[in-house]
Design goal:
This protein is an alpha/beta fold and about 200 residues long. Helices cover about 30% and strands about 20% of the residues. The chain has 7 helices and 9 strands, in the order H-E-H-E-E-E-H-E-H-E-H-E-H-H-E-E.
Length: about 200
């Protein structure tokens, strides 16, 4: 079986994520859990708002479903994307890449040190809850928690995607209540000060 080639993934506009980034303050430190081939990472970098970006992605030998891609292929696409940004003269933040599971990376990161955490890792109910539990303490009191794949009724067009990501919304809702804002690409965010104790 021949796996698809991802090395030449090109940047497509991501209006919902770009809207989320526009709502973030300038000069922030952030953690991105689950960067895949770096499409969202590129949006964060191109914004010019990020001074430090910690990317957490294991890129192991597992196959990324439903695209049937090997982790090594996806990592190569990510590396190529970052290199093209650097070669293109894009101002780069301090970039820290943690090639590990989010649960393994969490103890290595300082609590209360980050302005924004964006969760787009494993999409099971249990994994979403674990990521929020592990990474909410990493945020400053003035911080913002966000993520991707918060499917609501308005996002129900692609039943294949809804099936894959349907556990994200219940996990988020259980841990934080409703987000402050949900964007057209299913990204979401909530200010730490608006999170109710659960």
């Amino acid at each position: 079986m021949r796996l698809p080639i991802v090395e030449d993934i090109v940047m497509r506009p991501v209006p919902g994520l770009e809207d989320l980034v526009n709502d973030l303050p300038d000069n922030i430190t952030m953690i991105e859990i689950g960067s895949f081939a770096g499409e969202s990472t590129e949006v964060f970098i191109r914004s010019g708002k990020i001074k430090k970006l910690v990317v957490i992605e294991p890129w192991d030998d597992a196959i990324f479903e439903p695209m049937n891609l090997k982790g090594t292929q996806v990592q190569r696409a990510f590396n190529n994307r970052i290199q093209k940004l650097t070669d293109g003269g894009i101002a780069m933040p301090e970039l820290v890449i943690a090639k590990r599971l989010s649960s393994d990376a969490a103890p290595l990161l300082e609590d209360g040190a980050y302005d924004f955490v964006y969760i787009d890792g494993e999409h099971s109910y249990a994994a979403v809850i674990e990521d929020i539990k592990n990474y909410l303490p990493k945020l400053k009191a003035s911080g913002i928690l966000g993520g991707h794949d918060y499917f609501t009724e308005q996002h129900r067009g692609d039943s294949r995607l809804v099936h894959i990501f349907e556990q994200v919304k219940p996990g988020v809702d259980k841990m934080i209540g409703k987000p402050d804002k949900v964007y057209s690409d299913t990204s979401w965010l909530i200010k730490v000060e608006n999170i109710k104790e659960r």
